[in-house]
Design a protein that fits this description.
Order of helices and strands: HEEHHEHHEHHH
Shape: globular
Number of strands: 4
Strand content: 5-15%
Structural class: mainly alpha
Largest sheet: 2 strands, antiparallel
Helix content: 55-70%
């Protein structure tokens, strides 16, 4: 990560923490009343081929004893009504501002993968994770809706893993590497504004 990108992240993450603190506190109180504890979902992700970190989100699913793999149709019954709304607005990702301040994430970059996929595709992720993972990115903007549609049709965790490994991983990686080759501050701003624009587009549907 370049020093310009790090300054960009620190400045805007700090600004958003100040501006959005009342919103986050309100969401936490609402979740506490409606869903109870735990309020946060904390899971291991990878920011380098051998470097894990804890990714923070607001909890959107009912808790189970063991939770592995990406979310597909096999987990849809666990998504709470409040959680579905949070996901649609991407409000569940507010706590990732903490990950940005810590340096685990950038605003823009590849979404941080699970360890199992980094170990399954070591050569691919050794290239993709040369970029600091991000809250949003080119692959998120271009491919997220298609990935969501593919995985929503999966009835078992094995089917979800197969579709994600065979189809989603290589296609997202291709987009992540396009971003990596073209990354600059103006491009990051463009992708952030596209992400915000997509949220407003969802609101009109």
């Amino acid at each position: 990560m370049t020093w310009r990108k790090r300054i960009f992240d620190l400045f805007f993450a700090s600004l958003l923490v100040i501006i959005l603190a009342p919103v986050l506190i309100g969401l936490i109180i609402y979740l506490l009343v409606k869903e109870g504890r735990p309020l946060f979902y904390v899971a291991e992700r990878m920011k380098g081929p051998d470097t894990p970190f804890n990714l923070w989100k607001l909890r959107t699913m009912n808790v189970v004893a063991e939770d592995t793999g990406v979310s597909g149709g096999d987990k849809s019954s666990r998504v709470t009504r409040t959680g579905a709304w949070l996901r649609r607005k991407r409000l569940d990702e507010f706590p990732q501002l903490w990950n940005i301040l810590r340096g685990d994430l950038s605003f823009v970059g590849p979404r941080p993968p699970l360890r199992q996929y980094v170990e399954q595709f070591p050569e691919l992720y050794s290239e993709v994770l040369k970029s600091r993972p991000g809250v949003t990115g080119l692959a998120t903007i271009v491919y997220h809706k298609h990935e969501e549609a593919l995985l929503s049709r999966c009835a078992t965790s094995q089917e979800t893993d197969d579709i994600y490994s065979r189809i989603c991983v290589p296609r997202k990686a291709r987009l992540d590497l396009i971003y990596q080759r073209n990354q600059n501050t103006c491009y990051d701003f463009d992708l952030v504004f596209q992400t915000i624009g997509n949220l407003f587009t969802r609101d009109r549907r």
